[in-house]
Automatic annotation (TrEMBL):
Broadest EC class assigned to this enzyme: transferase
Organism listed in the record: Crypturellus soui
Gene of this entry: Hectd2
Protein name (record): Probable E3 ubiquitin-protein ligase HECTD2
Reactions it catalyzes: S-ubiquitinyl-[E2 ubiquitin-conjugating enzyme]-L-cysteine + [acceptor protein]-L-lysine = [E2 ubiquitin-conjugating enzyme]-L-cysteine + N(6)-ubiquitinyl-[acceptor protein]-L-lysine
Annotated active site: 698 (glycyl thioester intermediate)
GO biological-process terms attached to the record: protein polyubiquitination
């Protein structure tokens, strides 16, 4: 009901705020400036401590603040007494609807939102109680929700009165630190559904600006209070902020907003407030909404590399970049950043090789621009290990693979084949590097001690090369592996610093060894006498090559019994031993191998879950999506052969669908952008229908003869995709 007559009214609000600001600036020293006038944009753009520059190891999180950071609590003025209950309000609304007389409702809204004090008087659970802790905001959430749900169905003059009251509250003369009542008012105002309407964005922007400029201690309270908001309303708040950022970047009606040059603080303020909700979501266990709900796909259409370079050059300084807040950047956008960063590194390394060659007056050779890997299929692992070790200086060049004795030229297809076969051999149980856990369907590092961990470094380098060259791998590591891979995300200069060590919990162990984790959970929940009934000590045993070996979880562990009092410590040390200490050398080699290729600030933008998606792609196949995005050459999508093809493929089992994808593209994984990113093409093969289909994996192209019926097409297709290994030249 705000879209028509309200537009000019809200334009007046904008002018009103501007006029007030100009008057304040003209008064000199007679009174302090309002919170809306922040002469130095630094106050808006400096990152809040809860969202430190991601170059630092610390992730977006909020821990309990030390005492010295907590601002003293200023005295709070006494609140007016308001006795209206949820039922009273609902009865008033029903009477107004039936009678058409909205005066009582108008008076309630205009009074309740007239100032921060009135907001607290109306919506605080107990006006006489301070509610100064992070555990309880003191907000009557049910009343707030009922009042806001009714607001958009009231006449326009009622809705305008609310906005006028909010303006009054935002224009107050702030002196000294904010009270908890002020923070409560901000928390309530953020939930106002009117701010979904673009005509209210000027007021919304000033509200966001004030919240963004609060102290770290105040942000600390807002974050913890936000954790208590119901999931649906929490998501609405996040969506509203994302929409605000999107429409400021790409306004549907530019005339609705002030010129961008006059409100450069809008987007930084909104992003900063969004960081508070992201911190609240990260602190909640389980999280309130998915981390992907914070993605803003609009950012996929801006100059991402400019954002990235600004962040690289200016870091956490006064220059705003979305890369300072990576939670808002989608995985598709991050992939673009990583790909382009990789390409620039490849070009830089290749150029340096060329300059070195010319400076020594040697004849340039095209092969020097690539990482050329030449392997025999019969000695795949040993040849690959030798090649990568010998050409360590070339790892950041574009990868090209040659199979000895085969005529295929690598335009991408041979590289995919090399990755697939190498991973298949290395992860085979007989190879002994990794243990496959059937319960969790994932691999984990073998804890067996050995003299040389270079093959673990090879696997890490393979994963790095895959990300660097945009190849997806069929690797099944648990999520904690990727958490360890980012611990830390940048290789430390001091080689004595431990790497690949992260905080692990029983939840992490469940994803690797669910049966053992279940047993430890039962130990924690056991109600009897743990020491007498379990008879365990702080010592664990592992079998290595048929020999049982013992390891102490702490000094003299074999002499320390596990009791009801220390069992939590026992479980934590056991989990840490299994996921960190027992495999430290193996994982450290793996870590250094990965980062020898993927050393980039772009990694700092990624969550562990996003690294997994970049490495492995998605295992979920949507062949209908592939059908919709497929291109045709020599065929039309309505041709009989094409209709036969899709009828057959959509009826395939998952195993056959994966074989088809591997046959045509060289990988059975779906890239980050989904099936559409494959650029899959079906071309008409002008050969006899006695021939099998042929694939060009370099170009994700399937060459299909015009088979006469569905039965023949299905038979030839299954034979082709089930017997596909090796390359030749046409």
């Amino acid at each position: 009901g705000l879209e028509r007559g309200a537009k000019n009214q809200f334009s007046t609000f904008s002018n009103f705020i501007t006029t007030i600001n100009q008057k304040k600036e003209g008064t000199g020293n007679r009174s302090p400036p309002t919170q809306l006038v922040i002469p130095n944009i630094k106050n808006v753009r400096d990152l809040p401590p809860i969202c430190l520059d991601v170059r630092q190891k610390q992730r977006v999180s909020v821990d309990t603040l030390p005492q010295e950071l907590k601002a003293p609590i200023p005295p709070q003025p006494s609140l007016p007494i308001r006795t209206k209950t949820v039922k009273d309000f609902q009865d008033d609304v029903e009477k107004a609807k039936s009678s058409g007389d909205w005066k009582v409702i108008h008076d309630f809204y205009s009074t309740s939102f007239d100032s921060f004090l009135e907001i607290n008087a109306a919506f605080k659970k107990d006006a006489s109680f301070p509610f100064n802790t992070i555990e309880d905001s003191g907000i009557n959430a049910k009343f707030v929700n009922v009042v806001y749900d009714a607001l958009l169905n009231t006449p326009q003059d009622v809705q305008k009165s609310v906005l006028k009251g909010i303006i009054n509250g935002l224009l107050q003369e702030w002196k000294g630190p904010r009270t908890k009542d002020d923070l409560r008012a901000y928390c309530i105002l953020l939930q106002n559904p009117q701010f979904s309407n673009t005509s209210t964005y000027v007021i919304y922007a000033h509200l966001l600006r004030q919240i963004a400029a609060l102290t770290e201690a105040d942000h600390h309270f807002l974050v913890h209070w936000s954790k208590k908001i119901a999931q649906r309303r929490f998501k609405q708040l996040v969506d509203r902020l994302l929409q605000f950022i999107s429409l400021r970047l790409f306004p549907a009606k530019p005339e609705e907003f002030p010129p961008m040059m006059k409100c450069t603080w809008w987007i930084p303020s909104a992003t900063k407030v969004l960081a508070l909700f992201n911190a609240a979501n990260s602190l909640s266990s389980p999280s309130i909404i998915s981390y992907t709900d914070f993605y803003n796909s609009t950012l996929d259409h801006i100059d991402l590399m400019e954002e990235y370079h600004n962040w690289q050059c200016y870091g956490n300084s006064h220059r705003f970049s979305f890369c300072q807040y990576p939670f808002i950047i989608s995985i598709a956008a991050k992939k673009v950043i990583i790909q382009r960063d990789s390409e620039q590194q490849m070009i830089s390394i290749a150029r340096q090789s060329l300059v070195d060659k010319v400076s020594r007056r040697q004849k340039p050779d095209m092969n020097m621009l690539f990482l050329n890997v030449k392997v025999r299929r019969t000695h795949l692992v040993s040849d690959s290990l030798d090649e990568l070790a010998r050409k360590r200086a070339d790892l950041k060049k574009k990868l090209k693979v040659t199979f000895v004795g085969e005529a295929g030229l690598d335009m991408g297809g041979l590289t995919k084949e090399w990755f697939l076969l190498l991973i298949r051999q290395i992860f085979h149980p007989d190879y002994g590097m990794f243990t496959y856990h059937k319960d969790s369907h994932c691999h984990w590092f073998s804890s067996f001690k050995c003299d040389n961990y270079s093959e673990f470094r090879l696997v890490g380098a393979l994963m790095g090369l895959a990300v660097y060259n945009s190849i997806t791998l069929d690797i099944r590591f648990p999520p904690c592996c990727y958490k360890k891979l980012l611990s830390p995300p940048i290789v430390p200069c001091d080689h004595n610093t431990l790497v690949g060590i992260c905080d692990v919990t029983l939840e992490d162990l469940i994803q690797v060894m669910p049966e053992l984790a279940h047993g430890l959970s039962e130990l924690l929940a056991y109600e009897g006498n743990v020491e007498e009934d379990f008879y365990s000590t702080f010592q664990v045993f592992q079998e290595e090559f048929g020999v049982i070996k013992s390891y102490n979880l702490k000094p003299n562990g074999e002499k320390i019994p596990v009791t009801n009092q220390n069992r939590k410590e026992y479980v934590q040390l056991y989990v840490d031993f299994l996921l960190n200490k027992s495999i430290y050398k193996q994982f450290a080699a793996f870590y250094y191998g990965f980062h020898s290729v993927c050393a980039s600030y772009a990694l700092l933008l990624l969550r562990p879950e996003e690294v997994e998606i970049l490495v492995c792609g998605s295992p979920e196949l949507d062949m209908s999506a592939l059908q919709r995005s497929t291109q045709y050459e020599g065929y039309q999508k309505t041709d009989l052969t094409i209709r036969y093809f899709w009828d057959v493929v959509l009826g395939f089992s998952l195993d056959l669908q994966k074989k088809l994808l591997h046959f045509a593209t060289g990988s059975d994984r779906v890239p980050v952008g989904g099936m559409a990113d494959l650029n899959f093409k079906i071309s008409k093969s002008e050969t006899s229908t006695n021939w099998l289909p042929v694939a060009h994996t370099c170009f994700n192209q399937l060459c299909l003869p015009p088979y006469k019926n569905k039965k023949e097409l299905k038979q030839k297709l299954i034979i082709g995709i089930s017997n596909a290994e090796g390359f030749g030249l046409e």
